[in-house]
Amino acid sequence: MMRTHYVSKVTKEMDGQEVTLAGWAHEIRDIGKIKFLVLRDRTGLVQVTAKRGVVPDDVVDSINFVKETVVQVKGKVVVGKGAKAGVELIPTEKIVVLGPVSTVIPFEVTGKVPAELDVRLDNRYIDLRRIETTAIFKIRSAIESAFREKLLELDFQEMTPPCVVAAATEGGTNLFKLQYFENEAFLAQSPQLYKQMAVVGGMDKVFMTTPVFRAEKHNTVAHLNEVLQMDIEMGFGDHNDAMDVLSDVAVHIIKRVKELCPGELKTLGREDLKVPGKVNRFTYTEMLLRLNKLGSPTKWGEDFTKDDEKKMPEAVGEELFVVTEWPTDTRAFYSMPSKEDPKICHAYDLVYMGMEVASGAQRIHIPELLVQQLKNRGLNPENFEFYVRAFRMGAPPHAGWSIGLDRMTMAICGMGNIRECTLFPRDRVRLTP
Question: What is the pTM of this model?
């Protein structure tokens, strides 16, 4: 290996030890007899101090490259009062250049000169070198790990649904079509139908992290055309059971991010992130009344607007909560209507920091009702026969949900644009890099 340690593993307790580090030249200063190199790797920054008379001249002179050069540094760990991390490195050998810079870096990685988001996304491999961007994707990774960790603890089984499908999974026309040999196919809008069939097949409790695709011609800060979903489906349970799991998973995610990423949260100014206790539930009708009192013009039967979502924390006095019992016509065709009032269905959304980050419902497992709901939405049941047929062979009551990984990251990190939280975002105009 070209390093013995990552920067974050170099501590005061290692005073006097020799280590080998590798990374990028983040900053370089030459003040005559002393040259300072700030070395950056994915875990942080450390100062390398080369002073004439303390180290050989050829070691000092080896710091003769530009910022963002990839280098290897061998040296001794020294506790230093002036060093931000409490330690610095005194090089014992010439710094080795592993990857020179041979063109102009498109923007200042240190952030001293701000760069437009589009410029950063056009050069994402450079943007990933920013301390703030590194923090976002460490947090995103922690979110994914915590999701998987909690579902495995709850005895769910991981599965992988297909991304190429023969019919719309949620209805509508906003589909990406593709030619699949002699047939027309689509990129999946959702893993919905397949995770349900897995439950009907006896897998009982499943979870997955999967990309989905929406050919919607929007251009907002909260939408993309390719997103990552963290989904579950559970058999022998209703919407209340699924909401219990959703609440447990959401709280676990926030808790684990708080535990695993304190430095990253501080970098993003989110060190005060609170771990919620109980996740309360509010009906759609109750939430609508509260929002109307705050001036929202939304009427019963309409979906909440983004402005409504932003006002919801104020309306209920909480950051994380569930909105349930929605008008049936506003939700997907497979949402189970209430027996008491078919105009209401057992669907729900999880709202966090004024943003919908998850959505779910109890599903229709009765084939005759499912066919009727398809017809009510103007969809041809024959196109869904492979799906409906599964429920004719003995299907348990079941429910599930989906957390948008990109949006959950956006909420936790306090970002104003979902593109900041997606490694290589795909929107209406962006296909590269």
Answer: 0.94
